[in-house]
Amino acid sequence: MVIVATRVFVVGATGYIGKFVVRELVRRGYEVVSFAREKSGVGGASSMEETRRQLEGSVVRFGDVGDMRSLREKGIRGERFDVVVSCLTSRNGGVKDSWAVDYEATKHAMVAGQEAGATRFLLLSAICVQKPMLEFQRAKLQFEKELRESGMTWIIVRPTAFFKSIAGQVEAIKSGKPYVMFGDGELTACKPISERDLASYMVDSLEDEGRHNRILPIGGPGPAITAKEQGTMMFELLGREPKFKRMPIQMFDVIIPVLSALAKLFPKLEDKAEFARIGKYYCSESMLVWDAEKGEYNADMTPEYGTDTLREFYRHVLEHGLEGQELGEHAMF
């Protein structure tokens, strides 16, 4: 039952999570306008017709969220909205792209929404911003700060890992290759959440006033799982003995300084250095709530939601492939 204002403007609607958020809003009876690029999806492979099919039930409008004029004229169109939902995220985590999307474009959506009368803003962020070391994290945090100061009612959802983000080795393992992990495979852990469960949680949060003006970390059904346990699970589902390849995380301590130094001479290498920093971060930092008092990640402090399990997800993709789970430029993560 919809108990809040019902006219919703969604940006980032064609992203991995955005599509499911739009469908959940439509399912619950909201009047949804989805704003998308003419060529969207991984590598811009989706046509306008395909985008309309994916976002069926919503009104789909096309334009550029990075361009305020386009957003106002092609998206908002002088109409009134009650809620803005942003599922925007940078395409690859590069320095300029992070600030262009995670900060500037998302801020455009907030400003345009305020002009259209919207009083609520639901933001899809990321749990990793709690310990910022990367440019996209700093860009997200800057927008979060401005959103909290905007005067709007805000809901910031910070999910842990998505199922797709820990599925990158599925095809390799199916073909007989070992599972690649850093160190002993127990350096990090997460409580991954499915796109369907996350979308449901986000819309629940829009409707639950107790979650308004709050930062909401969220994971899927526990317990927390390490990289080694993820690999073991896939081999078990295939009926094979686990086979691992261990990589030294110290390799990043060589790669990062070299690329950073070269980037000062050759600016085009700036993103390469950032991608190496991203790689190290995801191989060394858990996607769980950070306990600042103890200086450690805490699985028990990481809330759980939903019913979709990683085991069932792995079972499905091992049998049917990764269609619909394409990583695109996020494959490096």
From TrEMBL:
InterPro entries: DVR-like, NAD(P)-bd_dom, NAD(P)-bd_dom_sf. Pathway: Porphyrin-containing compound metabolism; chlorophyll biosynthesis. It comes from the Bacteria. Its EC number is 1.3.1.75. It is an enzyme of class 1 (oxidoreductase). Residues 12-208 form the NAD(P)-binding domain. Pfam families: NAD_binding_10. Keywords: Chlorophyll biosynthesis, NADP, Oxidoreductase, Transit peptide. It catalyses: protochlorophyllide a + NADP(+) = 3,8-divinyl protochlorophyllide a + NADPH + H(+). The keyword Glycoprotein does not apply. GO terms for biological process: chlorophyll biosynthetic process. One of its GO terms (molecular function) is 3,8-divinyl protochlorophyllide a 8-vinyl-reductase (NADPH) activity. This is Divinyl chlorophyllide a 8-vinyl-reductase, chloroplastic. It comes from Prosthecochloris vibrioformis.
